[in-house]
Write a sequence for this structure.
């Protein structure tokens, strides 16, 4: 999990302190966009919690079940601070999450894992991609929101666990590698297409990236560098699993 | 949730302090029995966690989903101290839980709820019965173990939540009451028959209840009073739901 591609070295929002945060929130469009983003992240965390508990249920070994259930509860611990932040911003957390329930649920229904290994990879690839994406976006936000987002996406030890179990399974039976590599590609494709659909429907995110009076936006070159980093990190994660991307 | 039938007023183990605890554990049969009991309770908690997350997944309303997921994580928080206690007693927690995996899993497979309300009732009735039973047994144990057990079984706010949702559902459609009352009876029957099977296979519990040099046992009269209290509390829980037992 070392050497992941990091966001551009000097993020435009990097110098903002908490005093400037309140200034940022005077821009109501900015505030609405942050609420939207936090709503998506929060429902994503709840959804990740459910996926981890599903994986825990599929575990054949009791220590594996326990390890996954524990990770799930750690992940769920991120939900409360996010809900509080949404409330602080004057929005209703349930309403903020509502637009993202269906896209996440559709994604999960379309990528239901057929076994324990597929479930592990889905959580690993999905959480990794989501975390990378949100951290990228967070660079364009006020520092308080940025810190909250980065903290919320901290890995709960899941990555090492998945890498270990998947590598072990491939060692035991080389044939599973091909099937799982295909699965990883499919997940990436479904995630991107679902994300695209959300972005098209909710223009708050687009507005956020376009910038504001006090916030520089993301130009096309920066956007394409971002997608480059996301793809690169995905490939690195697949390689860590011993799979071609 | 008031006025539940409590265990006999002066529990025989009630006067034991933590110094006497170490004396109790010099009896290796006692130590093994406690490990067995804690193994059962711990796997029961993990199993309850899984059931709550299943219920959370069935929730149609986002606040319900969130409330149940939160209860699940609170419940899971009891697991760690139990595992530690088993280790402190010189046993392997995974081995201690192993004999109870199948009975619990069989019980859950035989009583898979067909909808959200059945799931809620199952968790409420099942957790209540289990908690009553373990707390009864705990009265015959050293004080350290007793405290741990009682703390582990503290209700995570689940009871009030279930009572509220089930009552509301019956108000909206009176016909569901009959079906759910039947369901409650079936759950009680399955739980008792599964518990009986476990007790017959593991004689450590029987030995525990028979007492030791320094611990009085439970005679037949006390045993029958205990079953009376378990049944009474079950009936009270069903009545709180607005259901006949």
């Amino acid at each position: 999990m070392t050497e992941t591609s990091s966001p551009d070295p000097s993020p435009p929002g990097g110098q903002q302190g908490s005093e400037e945060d309140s200034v940022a929130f005077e821009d109501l469009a900015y505030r609405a966009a942050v609420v939207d983003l936090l709503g998506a992240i929060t429902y994503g965390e709840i959804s990740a919690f459910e996926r981890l508990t599903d994986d825990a249920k599929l575990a054949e070994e009791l220590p594996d079940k326990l390890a996954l259930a524990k990770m799930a509860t750690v992940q769920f611990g991120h939900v409360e601070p996010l809900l509080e932040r949404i409330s602080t911003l004057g929005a209703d957390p349930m309403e903020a999450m509502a637009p993202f329930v269906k896209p996440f649920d559709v994604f999960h229904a379309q990528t239901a894992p057929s076994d324990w290994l597929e479930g592990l990879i889905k959580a690993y690839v999905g959480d990794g991609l989501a975390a990378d994406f949100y951290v990228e976006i967070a660079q364009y936000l006020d520092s308080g929101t940025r810190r909250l987002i980065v903290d919320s996406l901290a890995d709960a030890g899941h990555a090492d666990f998945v890498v270990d179990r998947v590598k072990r399974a491939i060692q035991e039976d080389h044939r599973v590698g091909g099937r799982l590599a295909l699965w990883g590609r499919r997940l990436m494709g479904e995630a991107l297409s679902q994300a695209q659909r959300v972005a098209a429907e909710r223009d708050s995110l687009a507005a956020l990236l376009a910038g504001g009076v006090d916030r520089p936006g993301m130009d096309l070159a920066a956007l394409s560098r971002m997608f480059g980093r996301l793809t690169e990190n995905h490939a690195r994660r697949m390689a860590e699993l011993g799979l071609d991307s």
Observations:
- The radius of gyration of chain A is 18 Å.
